[in-house]
Amino acid sequence: SDYRSVAQQHGLARPNPANLLALLPAICKLCPPEVDAGEACYKVFEDGTCASVPPKNAPEVRFMEGQRVFCRVEAPGGQTAWEEGIIVGMWYREGCWPETHPGAPYEIRLMLGLRVFALVDDDRIVRSTKVSEKGTGAAAAAGAVPAGSDAAAAEAGTTPSTAAAPGPRFQKRERPDGKWELFDTKSGKARPCSPPDSDDDDDD
User: Fold this and answer.
1) 3-state secondary structure labels for all residues of 100-151
2) What gap in Å lies between CA 15 and CA 97, rounded to an integer?
3) What is the C-alpha separation between 83 and 185, in angstroms, rounded?
4) Digit-coded pLDDT (tens) for 28-51
5) Virtual CA dihedral for 5, 39, 119, 71, nearest 10 degrees?
6) Which of 16, 74, 77, 175 has the most CB atoms at less than 10 Å from its CB?
7) Partners of 75 in the β-ladder
8) Range list of β-strands (E), the chain
9) Across residues 147-157, what is the average pLDDT?
């Protein structure tokens, strides 16, 4: 996915995003649900922008700006993980992308502060936090709401704090004094952070 680093390694003046723009949509369209191809949402770049209006060739999308979604993102060790976030922009694109490409449907700010983009509007990499679609197969394609999420907790009749892992490792939660903290579900440690709807990304 890091085509810019590849361009730098080979001394190319202009990065070529062709593989990324063609391969990920094909994986989501053609891979059987039980096959985990490692597809994910990717980190945005500084020159990335979102369109104020949908491009003329833009396909229909399921979500709108301001909605909360689950995103499948890259994790350490070549793994992937589901993280909750909010859509902060539509039709994200980078400066070297072809003008004929409509862009990525969503730019998402994760609850842990990182910004990513979903290149395709597909349940394999981005899905609703409210709807649980029953299915079988790899976690990326099964359609089930990630365990440990608020949605999964609601289905189980528990609160998010008592829902079983796995789920997003880092979770924002409100303390009794009204302040917010970022809780690490693996280590059990927490530190102060900005509220979920704040633009302050000091907790990434």
Assistant:
1) CCCCEEEEEEECCCCEEEECCCCCCCEEECCCCCCCCCCCCCCCCCCCCCHH
2) 9
3) 13
4) 889 998 888 889 999 998 889 999
5) -110
6) 74
7) 79
8) 42-43, 49-50, 68-75, 79-93, 104-110, 115-118, 126-128, 170-174, 180-184, 190-193
9) 45
